[in-house]
Design a protein that fits this description.
By secondary structure, the chain is α/β, with parallel strands linked by helices. It has three domains: 174 residues; 84 residues, no CATH class; 224 residues, Rossmann fold. The protein is 53% helix and 11% strand. The chain has 23 helices and eleven strands. It has a seven-stranded mixed beta sheet, with helices on both faces. It has a four-stranded antiparallel beta sheet with strand order 1-2-3-4. Helix 3 runs antiparallel to helix 5. The chain is elongated, with a radius of gyration of 29 Å.
C-alpha cells in the first residue's frame, strides 16, 4: 500500500515538474514574442531569450543547496506562486516598463529609453528562468522523499515540459492574444497550487502564508482574465498614442484624447491593427490635405483618418496612401514608356497596388502573392479595405495566390513584364531576406526580356531637411549604396532611384493665394490664424507647415532592369483619375540627387550569408 502511494506521489511530482518546466518556457517565449513588437530583430530577441532563460534557470537550480529540508516545501510553494505572478503578468509588466522608461529623463534619445526598456525585459526573463529552475529542483528533491526512482526521470519530465511549453505557445498564438494566454495559464496554475495546498491541509502558520498568497494572486489574475479585452484595448491605444506624442505621467496612464478603439485581426502569429485618428487631429490636417489634392474628388463615404499597422509596423494611413501607391506604381510606367501586360505583385495583401494597376486597360493579368493571407482575406470583406481598393481583388484580371512568397518564386514558371514589391522594412531577418541578393535573383528569373522590377526601398529616401532655399542634401544614413550594390550583384544592369516628392509651399501645391490654415474649422487652428496677424509671420508658418508635411511623406523607391534600355518620360501614359501624381510631380520624383555608383563593393552587398540588416537592436520609429 505504501509503495503504491509512493508511486502515485512520484507520478504527481513528475506531472508538476512537467507543468512547471512547460510554464517557464512558455512565459519566456511570450516575453520574446512581445519584444519583437516593441523592437525589431526578432532573431536577436528569441536568441537572447534562450540564453538568459537557460542561464538563470540553471542558476536557480543551483541556488537551493543552502536550504534545510524543513524549509524546502514552504519555499517551493512560494517560488511557484512567484513564477506565475511574474510570468502570468509578463505582458503587463512589459507594458509598465515601456511606459516607465519612456518617462525617464533621457532627453531626446529614444535609443536610451528603449535600451532601458530592453534591460527591464531581460530582468523579467531572468526572474522567470530563476524561479523556474528553483521550482523544478525543489519538486525533484521533494519527489525523492517519497520515491527512490532515478533522478533522470525528473530530467525527462523537465525536458518534455520544455518541449510542451514551446509547442503550446505555437498552438496558442495562432488563436489567442499573448495577454489572454499568460493570464489564463496563470489562473490555471494558481488554481492548481491553491487546490494542492488545501488538500495538504497545512496548519502551521508558515504554511498558511503560501495559500493566502496563491488565493490573492488567483483572484487578481482571474479578474484580469475576465476583462482581458478591455486591458488589451487600453494597451494598444496607449501604445499607438505614445508613438506620435510625448506626455507626462498623468496623460501616459489616461485614455483621454487618445485614439479610438483599435480593431485587431489575427493572421497566425501576425497581428493587423486598424486605428481611427481623432477628429480634432483630422480637422487640423484637412487644409494641407486639401491643398495637395489628397481629398479632391472623393466621395463622402471614403474612409479618411484610418491607420493600418502590421505587427505594430506602420503600413499606411488612408489619407496619404495615394502618395505612396501612385508614385510607386505609375512613375515606373512613365520611365519605361510602356504599360506592362502581365504583372506580379508582392505586397501585404490590401489590394491597393492592384487598384492602381487596374487603371490601365493594357494590363491583362495581375498575380498578387500577399505576405499576409489574413489581410488578403480581410481586403475582400472588410468595408474599409473594400472602399480603399475599389474591389480590385475581385476583378477578373486579378489573381490572388495564397502561397509563401519564397515558394511561389521558386515554383512559378511564368514570366512577367513587371514585378512590384512592397514589403515590410527589414528590421528582422524574417523580412530582411526580401532585400537580399538571393531574393533579387529569384525575382530577376521571373522577369521577361525587357521587364522591370520596382521595390519600396526603406531608407533610400532619407535626405537632410530643407534649407532656407528649399534644397535637400545627401546624408550618410541613406541606404541607397546597399540597395544599388545588392541589385547590381544580383544581375540588374540598370538601377534607378526616385522619391515620392511633393511641393513644399502652398501656392505650388494648390495654386491658391490664401492661408490654408484659415480653412480649418477646429478651434486650435482658428486661434493660430487669429494670432498670425503679420503677413510675414503667417507666410513663414504656412511654409514650415508644408515643408514638414512634404518631408514626412518622402519615401524612396527603386526601379531596376536586367538590360540597359533607354528610359522615357512620357507622362501621357498617366491615367486621368489619379489623386496626387501629375506630370510636374513626376519630375519632382527625380529632383533629389543620389551619388553616382562606383565599382562593386562587397561591404554593401546584403545577402543571406552576409546580412546588412537588421543593423540595430531598436526599431527606428
Amino acid at each position: 500500500m505504501t509503495r503504491n502511494f509512493n508511486d502515485t506521489a512520484a507520478r504527481l511530482h513528475g506531472v508538476l515538474i512537467f507543468l512547471t518546466a512547460a510554464a517557464g518556457v512558455f512565459y519566456a517565449v511570450v516575453v520574446a514574442y512581445q519584444m519583437t513588437f516593441y523592437f525589431g530583430n526578432a532573431t536577436f530577441w528569441f536568441g537572447l531569450t534562450s540564453g538568459v532563460y537557460l542561464f538563470f534557470r540553471h542558476l536557480g537550480a543551483a541556488w537551493n543547496w543552502h536550504l534545510s529540508p524543513d524549509r524546502r516545501k514552504n519555499f517551493l510553494w512560494r517560488k511557484l506562486i512567484y513564477l506565475h505572478v511574474i510570468g502570468g503578468g509578463s505582458v503587463l509588466w512589459l507594458y509598465l516598463s515601456y511606459v516607465f522608461c519612456g518617462l525617464l529623463p533621457t532627453g531626446d534619445s529614444a535609443a536610451a529609453a528603449l535600451s532601458g526598456f530592453g534591460l527591464c525585459a531581460i530582468i523579467i526573463l531572468a526572474d522567470i528562468g530563476f524561479l523556474s529552475g528553483c521550482s523544478v529542483t525543489l519538486l525533484d528533491e521533494s519527489r525523492l522523499e517519497v520515491s527512490v526512482s532515478p533522478r533522470r526521470r525528473s530530467s525527462l519530465w523537465a525536458g518534455l515540459g520544455a518541449l510542451g511549453g514551446a509547442a503550446g505557445f505555437l498552438w496558442g498564438i495562432q488563436r489567442f492574444e499573448a495577454l489572454t494566454m499568460t493570464l489564463g495559464l496563470a489562473v490555471l496554475f494558481l488554481s492548481l497550487i491553491f487546490l494542492i495546498l488545501l488538500i495538504l491541509r497545512v496548519k502551521n502558520k508558515k504554511r498558511k502564508v503560501p495559500a493566502g498568497m496563491a488565493l490573492a494572486a488567483l483572484v487578481l489574475f482571474a479578474s484580469g482574465l475576465c476583462y482581458h479585452q478591455g486591458i488589451l484595448q487600453y494597451f494598444l491605444k496607449d501604445f499607438y498614442h505614445n508613438l506620435s506624442a510625448t506626455y507626462g505621467v498623468p496623460a501616459s496612464f489616461s485614455t483621454a484624447g487618445k485614439y479610438f478603439r483599435v480593431e485587431r485581426y489575427r493572421d497566425g502569429g501576425d497581428r493587423i491593427d486598424i486605428i481611427r485618428v481623432p477628429e480634432d487631429i483630422l480637422a487640423q490636417e484637412m487644409p494641407i490635405n486639401q491643398a495637395y489634392g489628397l481629398t479632391a474628388g472623393r466621395e463622402a463615404a471614403y474612409p479618411y483618418g484610418y491607420m493600418f499597422f502590421f505587427n505594430r509596423r506602420f503600413m499606411m494611413r488612408t489619407d496619404h496612401q495615394a502618395v505612396h501607391n501612385e508614385y510607386f506604381v505609375h512613375v515606373p510606367v512613365v520611365v519605361n514608356g510602356r504599360v506592362p501586360a502581365r504583372v506580379l505583385v508582392l505586397d501585404f495583401g490590401a489590394g491597393l497596388i492592384a487598384r492602381e494597376l487596374l487603371k490601365y486597360p493594357g494590363v491583362q493579368e495581375i498575380t498578387q502573392v500577399p505576405l499576409s493571407r489574413g489581410l488578403a482575406r480581410l481586403a475582400r470583406r472588410h468595408p474599409l479595405l473594400m472602399a480603399l481598393n475599389d474591389h480590385a481583388l475581385d476583378d477578373p484580371r486579378c489573381r490572388v495566390v495564397m502561397e509563401s512568397i519564397d515558394r511561389f518564386l521558386r515554383t512559378d514558371a511564368h514570366r512577367y513584364d513587371a514585378v512590384y514589391m512592397d514589403l515590410p522594412v527589414g528590421d528582422s531577418y524574417r523580412f530582411s531576406r526580401f532585400y537580399s541578393r538571393e531574393f533579387f535573383e529569384l525575382i530577376k528569373k521571373r522577369l521577361s526580356k525587357d521587364g522591370y522590377f520596382v521595390l519600396q526601398a526603406p531608407g533610400s529616401g532619407i535626405f537632410s531637411y530643407f534649407d532656407e532655399e528649399g534644397r535637400q542634401a545627401w546624408v550618410q544614413e541613406n541606404k541607397w549604396p546597399v540597395y544599388r550594390q545588392t541589385l547590381r550583384a544580383a544581375g540588374y544592369q540598370m538601377v534607378v532611384p526616385y522619391v515620392a516628392n511633393l511641393e513644399i509651399d502652398f501656392f505650388k501645391a494648390s495654386g491658391k493665394d490664401e492661408n490654408p490654415l484659415a480653412q480649418s474649422s477646429s478651434k486650435e487652428a482658428n486661434d493660430i490664424v487669429g494670432l498670425l496677424t503679420e503677413e510675414k509671420v503667417r507666410d513663414l508658418a504656412v511654409r514650415e507647415g508644408f515643408r514638414e508635411f512634404a518631408y514626412a511623406l518622402q519615401e524612396g523607391f527603386i526601379m531596376a532592369r536586367a538590360d540597359k534600355g533607354a528610359l522615357s518620360r512620357d507622362t501621357r501614359l498617366l491615367p486621368r483619375d489619379l489623386r496626387v501624381l501629375n506630370p510636374p510631380r513626376v519630375a519632382l520624383a527625380f529632383q533629389l540627387k543620389y551619388p553616382p555608383g562606383g565599382d562593386r563593393d562587397r561591404r554593401f552587398i546584403h545577402s543571406l550569408k552576409n546580412p546588412k540588416w537588421p543593423g540595430v537592436l531598436w526599431r527606428n520609429w
